[in-house]
Structures are given as C-alpha cells and as structure tokens.
Design a protein that fits this description.
- It is a single chain.
- The protein has 5 helices and no strands.
- The chain has a domain at 25-71.
- The protein has helices spanning 2-8, 12-21, 25-43, 49-60, 62-70.
C-alpha cells in the first residue's frame, strides 16, 4: 500500500523515470526511439488555414492541372 500512495504523489515525469530505471538495457534504445518520435510528432504543426485552402484547391482542380501538365 505504501508504494501505491507514493506513486499517487509522483508527477508524470517522475513516474516515467521510475519506469525507465526498471527497463532492461535492450529496451532502453527502443524507449529512446519512442520518446524522440513523440517529440517530432509534437513539433509538427497542422497546416495553416491558407495552406489547407491551397491544398483543397489543388485537389479540387487536380484534373485541370494534370491536363495542363500533359499538354
């Protein structure tokens, strides 16, 4: 019970560190790769409304652009 109450007062970072400290060495590389992937994913921003509108326009007029490219 003491462990459960201690975990309840730990913040997320402390809990992650505790879990990492218990991982065997071969899994640490995989954990590192996963954390790095999370960082990259969080840094990728959604396209702005202008970019979204441009992409929608490209899709909407794809056939016209293809005919122009083929001519």
């Amino acid at each position: 019970m003491k462990l459960l109450s201690a975990i309840a007062f730990m913040n997320t970072k402390e809990q992650i560190i505790q879990e990492i400290e218990q991982l065997p060495e071969p899994l640490l590389a995989e954990a590192l790769e996963f954390v790095r992937a999370l960082k990259v994913r969080s840094q990728v921003k959604a396209p702005s409304k202008a970019v979204q509108a441009f992409l929608a326009s490209l899709e909407e007029h794809k056939e016209v652009y293809q005919r122009l490219a083929d001519s």
